[in-house]
Amino acid sequence: MPLSATLLINEKSDELIKNGKMVCKLGLGQSPFPVPTSVVEELKVNAHQKSYLPVKGLPQLRAAVADYHRRIHRIFSTEEDVLIGPGSKELMFLLQYVYYGDLVIPTPSWVSYAPQAQIIGRQVRWLCTTKENRWLLSPEELDAHCAKDPHKPRIVILNYPSNPVGATYNIEELKQLAEVARLYKIILLSDEIYGELHHKGKHISIARLYPEGTIISSGLSKWCGAGGWRLGTFTFPSSLRWLLDAMAAMASETFTSTSAPIQYAAIRAFEGGTDIENYLWRSRWILDKLGNKIAAQLNEADIFTPPPEGAFYLWPDFSNYTDKFQSRGIRNSSALCTKLLEESGVAILPGFSFGMQPHELVARLAYVDIDGTKAINEAKLIKSADEIDDEFLEHYCGNVLKATNLIIDWIKS
């Protein structure tokens, strides 16, 4: 098994840069923004914390996460429903390990869901989506799959705003998916790590609609800019307390507990406040304006790209250039991305890494190669998203705009 595709493209890009090649890094999905100052200060204050913490997590942090979900999502949980881990990726692995059942994943989907299941030896069932449906899972597709074996235990992963597409579900779509999940008693893992990066600040957790069977996955990596801090959270319904306890038992024999200073600092992040809200809104404004500008440019170049609704990803479809690519020996998304990197210096990831068929000429573009610190500091001086204009984007997000032009020039050349 190779390295995770997102980590591999980052290491390859860094190696090319080290060797003197210009590379626009649009492969790894890492937040471009700094960790909020108040959260960093809390980490400094707690750097001395050195004791092992409870396996399930620091009680104050678990309470802060539960309160966050009550405050933001109207989901009524307690600290006893929360499990803390060293990144949500680790918690997802433990969930699959302790729960015997198929893993059901819509395509396209994040690169690590399926490999984790394969490591453990679980069956992976892929559900197809279409660009006509914004690459989102339809209730009809989920129902058709579950109806074949209605009593089979299964975990269905729902990730939104979506990595890799940047699309999200509206309330009616979530209601219909919740009805299907309830009918088949599905355990729904709702990966909402990008929830706070809904560009309009209107993320809705499906746990409001299917509370008895939904586990909410979140953490600090995307909305708080703290990917390297490695802190993830799972929030369970009380009916699945047995599953939380089983995961905690596994955790006690593997990672023991999550870093103490990080947990203490994370309390500040989940408590929120005016500074966190301002940070989030300015992050959303920048990502919304930048993502939609790039999508418009790609669509003008006949590269079908759904406009993003959240996160910091685009999902360009290059199939209109199939004949042109084949004349150059490019017959799959992996070859497409390899040639693009070699000949233009732009690093994006092939759709194949996200569960698509090799011949489908789609790719993920992470528009994160920006000066996030300067951009968000400048955004503090403005009062609305309307003030994020082309001049702002050129000044603070120039690498991504340059990369977009390089992609278009390469396609046309």
Task: Write structural notes for this entry.
The protein is an alpha/beta fold and 413 residues long. The chain has two domains: 5-30 and 275-412, Aspartate Aminotransferase, domain 1; 37-272, 3-Layer(aba) Sandwich (Aspartate Aminotransferase, domain 2). It contains 15 helices and twelve strands. The protein has helices at 5-18, 37-45, 59-73, 88-98, 113-120, 139-147, 171-183, 241-252, 260-271, 274-300, 322-326, 333-344, 372-379, 390-396, 398-412, and strands at 24-25, 82-85, 102-106, 124-127, 154-159, 187-191, 214-219, 232-235, 313-314, 346-347, 349-350, 363-366. The strands form three sheets. The protein has a seven-stranded mixed sheet, with helices on both faces. Strands 9-12-11 form a three-stranded antiparallel sheet. A two-stranded parallel sheet has the order 1-10. Helix 2 (37-45) runs antiparallel to helix 9 and helix 4 (88-98) runs parallel beside helix 5. The longest helix has 27 residues, at 274-300.
